[in-house]
Amino acid sequence: MVSTTPATRAPATADPGPLRPPWSARALIAAGLLVAAVAVTWLTFWWIGLSPASLAAGLDDTARLLRRMWPPDLPRAGDVAWMIVETLLIAVAGTGLAALASVPLAFVAARTHSGPRWLRPAARAVVVLTRAVPTLAFAILFVRIFGLGPLAGALAVAVHSVGMIAKLLTDAVEEADPVPAEASRACGAGEVQVAVSTVLPRVFPALAGIVLYRLDINIRASAVLGVVGAGGIGVALQTALGSLNYHRAAGIICVIVVLVLLLELLSVAVRRTVLRPSVRRPTVRRRTASRTGRRDAGAAGRSAGDTTGTAALPAGRAPHDVGWDRGRVLRVAGAVATGVVFLVSLWSLGPDPGRLSGAWPNLRAVLTGMWPPAFSGDLLMAVLESLLMALGAAAVGAACGLVLALLTAVNTTPWRPLSAVVRVLLVVVRGIPDLVYALLFVAALGLGPYAGFLALWISSTALAAKFFADSLEQLDPLPHEALTSVGARRWQAFAAGIWPQFVPSFTGNGLFVADLALRESVVLGIAGAGGVGYLMQESIATLRYDTTAAIVIAIAVVVYAIETLARIARRHLL
């Protein structure tokens, strides 16, 4: 007789878990990425002519410019207030339009969509294209079509935001419970009815969180859209720099930094309040009454043959709980206030029919002039320059960010007060938009990729330090504590207890920083900091829309390729 003891029989429901390469293969992947980062960094330094002597000279020129900007000259309070309000209205209008457009787009792009097959790949192509092209690039196009002002900025924010909101909402729709939707289809409901009645209520909390997070990003982006004439406080910054009024430019930069930091704190508080699940703490009497009410209601429903009345109440809810309680009143009031603010923001853009109809000839000229796209050697060299500038800055920024993360993380910092100081410094550095750094370096060092590399270096360092510090603090502390308890030195405990755990997170977060740096390199080029962005702005100014189309296609392909490679590497390492 064959033995069937638990020791010799494999469990029938054994889950092998996600398949990952063995540690040796993961180590080879990480080593290959490290070698590639070093090679790209060396090539970037050679391309832009960066050396210790040129770096010291560039920093000296930048220090002289900063001395010329001191003390800052703040604009009048009324002017500052109006510029801030216009910036916020641009962000709110763009985010609201993007949310309205993203909901149907996400349902069509989801794998659960049962409509025509050609709609899903078309929707996914729209999501990829809008996410790959930066906001400032769309702003240049819309300024050309609709003219100067906040309307172009809001539309640019909306189009670019569709890519992120629709992508994340598509994932939420695909992860929703399919049973209610299948039941609705079995009863004869159409796709629109199924989406509105069964899927949308389940994914609405995720949609609210995505929109709030995107609004935070859009406020930062709206602060610099004025550089290309798309409204907001960036118009005043570009005017001050163009007229060499560096004291006024410093004052406007201070206003932008304070605005971004305050809104970051506000957005965090709002997300915690809106997305925090409500916890009911009923008394014993209330729980007993609820059980009694449900039992009586269930008996009445069964005797009447009714399964849709009070018998269908959710568990934990008594019949008298249904109605306009305080929580529902607050949610409805918040929804109404949000709608009013959105309508006011749309009205502030001035979308009168005459202006929109007058933009049609410009739109037709842009679209007809984009075909066929005109690829050229200069375009490919500009794309290569953006790629090298972004990847090189991300690699150097990751190395510098690792050092700062070791100083700020609770489990690696040598001195707690130093950790607090570095954290505050990183928050301030992250609060300054990348384009502001680029404008300052261009003013100090002149046009070219050198200024863009320095701007991306600073932003990548601050972003990588934040990601790395969060990852270090989430590691298992037991190996480090065990090594420390047996007399290991600090560097020995780190090398053997922390670093092996941290390598996957370090690689994954570093790739994510490189992905963001590549997108930002296009934006910095628009300010004259090298790369393909400068070529794009020049092509639109000279009405060479076929070159513009080729640049947009090249940007989308390169960004999507880097994003795909980063996603594959993270899947094999994390």
Annotation keywords:
574 residues, mainly alpha
Written overview of the protein:
The structure is a single chain. By secondary structure, the chain is mainly α. Helices cover 76% and strands 0% of the residues. The protein is built from 22 helices and no strands. Helix 1 crosses helix 15, helix 16 crosses helix 18 and helix 17 packs antiparallel against helix 18. It is globular and about 70 Å long. The two termini are 45 Å apart.
Count of DSSP E strands?
0
Number of helices: 22
Radius of gyration: 28 Å
* Beginning-to-end CA distance, first to last residue: 45 Å
Largest sheet: none
State the gist of this model.
By secondary structure, this protein is mostly helical. Helix content is 76%, strand content 0%.
Secondary-structure topology with pairs:
Layout: H1 23-48, H2 52-68, H3 77-109, H4 119-132, H5 135-146, H6 150-175, H7 179-186, H8 191-222, H9 234-242, H10 246-275, H11 284-304, H12 326-348, H13 353-358, H14 360-369, H15 377-408, H16 416-431, H17 434-445, H18 449-473, H19 478-485, H20 490-526, H21 532-541, H22 545-573
Helix pairs in contact: 1-15, 2-17, 3-4, 3-6, 3-8, 3-12, 4-6, 4-22, 5-6, 5-14, 5-21, 6-8, 7-8, 8-10, 9-10, 15-18, 15-20, 15-22, 16-18, 17-18, 18-20, 19-20, 20-21, 20-22, 21-22
